[in-house]
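Hello Y.,

Per our agreement to keep a running log of every chain we model this quarter, I'm adding this entry. I've kept the format consistent with earlier entries: sequence first, then predicted structure.
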Amino acid sequence: MSLALCADVGSTYTKVVVVDLDGGAVVAAADHPTTAGTDVLHGLDAAAAATGVVVPPSSWYVCSSAGGGLRLAVVGYESLVTAQAGHRVGLSAGARVVHVSAGPLGSLAALRSARPDVVLLVGGTDGGDAAVLEHNARRLARARWRVPVVLAGNAAVRDELAGVLRSAGVPVTATDNVLPRIGVLEPGPARAAIRDVFLSHVIGGKGLSRGRRFPSLVRAATPDAVLTGVEVLADYLGGDLLVVDVGGATTDVYSVLTPDGRTDDVAGTMWRSRTVEGDLGMRWSAPDVINAALAERLLVGPTGADGPAVRAGQVGTRGSGTAGQAGLTGHAGMRGSGAGTDGQAGLTGHAGTRGSGAGTDGQAGLTGHAGTPGPDPGTDGPAGNLGPVGTHGSEVAAMGPGRSALRFGVDTPEAARNAAGRSDVDAEFAVLEAAAAARAATPGFVPSDDAERAIDRRIAALAATIAVRRHARGPAGRAGRDLRDARLLVGSGGVLRHATPGEAKEVLDAVLTDFAGGWAVPRAATPVIDVSYVLAAAGLLAADHPNAARALLDRHLRGA
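Predicted structure for the entry above:
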């Protein structure tokens, strides 16, 4: 039996799988806390030993996101064209994009403060305007910039500018233009160049390990390896594919779509794409998940005389009905449990709604949406469609895709104290707000009972739903991604791996039933969980052992 050891050295845990290269089976798997505080090799070796299988070092394949992973800055020409194209390419290379600038560089203070590991210097289509690219390259040269630069701009001046940078002592790698023509995005060469720079210049300089052994083992940044695995799976299956990886600090979304020939996006379309939501995570950024869920209408905050609490600086608006028990909603809600008087309305749609009866200080609309009147004074407003359900009195209803924390079985003493005297809508928010704060304060927290595990799954469902929404709709004013034809939805992350199959499926069902906002989310995808870390493993094996990579994915994901 021919074996390979595939390892992912993450910021929190180091995961190892031993793969049979002949049949694609996972022979053994283990994990160990990442030992970044001393030497990451200690944790890697411990995880390898825990498998009970000895694999020669020549057959070790390692990816890493420890030490912050790969920090990338993008310097481009126009914010909506080459800078945006560079940003997309950087994400596809597994980078954490920490800075994006467009236009001629002046002060380098912001660029320096972002502390990038690599700068992706882009600008201009091939044969087009090169003035900004020339200015920016010469500006870095004059500053004797020492961070490695990947130059992937206008081919007409690329070699000349690479020479200018090298003569100033700037480490530079020149490669093909990321945007050779308007609407044509070519990420491959720049992605490969960024990977090479990461391996040759970055991973050894993060202080993760003493000596050269660890850098010599690392083949890719973890997100780069995962995207490669996703690409292998998509090529093998055919059709569209979506992956959601819910981590402690971020939620990553990967998608592979079938090209349709459109060129309406001037920055080009990434048919194989990754987005990173740095504010959506299970531990460090858990409070941000709750805030984002409020903004997305997936949660409802505590109510008062002026309506629901507003997060992230968003301003609520005041209705004109008498304050009462309103059925508050997310993107589209169903009405409350009974008709009321003077403002006791089931709230609907994007707007927080109210009855139209006159009164004082009614319920506020959330995140600045104005309240809209129901059709009759003092009666329930019309129901929205397939979205969060409003509540009246003590009736508990599902809060958006998935289930509310109360429906997930959250029943801790702390939750009871936080929820005392509140409506059930408020109670869920109180439970999640307190739990998220506790997780951010103690990132190493491990749930010890069913109630805490239920809270973790609820946070994961919110993070996954919001991340896929953002991936589908794209940044403000930009084209999104049409995920409706995705055949497979793969869930990844510790919270899903450690759940029962039914519990994990419930989290992914939150994504698959999120139709309220009209986002182009999957319509009929099959949900599966990457329990054995095979996406990263397949990505690591793809170059040297393509058949084993395909067999591994077929055995553990396609047939799941």
